[in-house]
């Protein structure tokens, strides 16, 4: 396990434990920070949208076309920050990652 720093929609930062091999969505959904993940991680709803800080974003595998299409349809989409947390697998290299839960739409 390693630490993930999560800023919720109220602006409060939390430290949570991430498990290698688990998606960020799975780590976030278990807590009550507003990540609904209605589709259960199938990349079809965008209710697990998060903003990842720049220094971490560049090290991630680039989003696939289906993820980008969903993100671009959201009102809060931010190029080089927005990701669906269901599409980001937590790895040891992401220990200390900082992200913010996107506004509810």
Give structural notes.
- With 105 residues, this protein is an alpha+beta fold.
- It has one domain: Beta-grasp domain (Ubiquitin-like (UB roll), Roll), CATH 3.10.20.30.
- Helix content is 17%, strand content 22%.
- The chain contains three helices and five strands.
- It has helices at 24-29, 54-57, 65-72, and strands at 2-7, 13-18, 49-52, 82-84, 98-101.
- A five-stranded mixed β-sheet has the order 2-1-5-3-4.
- Strand 1 and strand 2 (13-18) form a beta hairpin.
- The longest helix is centred in the middle third of the chain and has 8 residues, at 65-72.
- The relative contact order is 0.29.
- The mean pLDDT is 95.
- GO terms for molecular function: 2 iron, 2 sulfur cluster binding; electron transfer activity; metal ion binding.
- Its cofactor is [2Fe-2S] cluster.
- Belongs to the adrenodoxin/putidaredoxin family.
The CATH architecture assignment turns out to be Roll
Whole-number count of domains: 1
Give the strand order of the largest sheet, numbering strands 1, 2, ... along the chain.
Answer: 2-1-5-3-4
* Radius of gyration, in angstroms, nearest whole number: 12 Å
Q: Structural class, please?
A: alpha+beta
Element-level helix/strand string:
EEHEHHEE
Work out the helicity level: 10-25%
- Model regions low in confidence, pLDDT < 50 over at least 5 residues: none
Number of E strands: 5
Reported for the largest beta sheet, the result is: 5 strands, mixed
CATH level-3 fold name? Ubiquitin-like (UB roll)
Q: What do we call the CATH homologous superfamily? A: Beta-grasp domain
Mean of residue pLDDT values? 95
Strand content: 15-25%
* CATH C-level: Alpha Beta
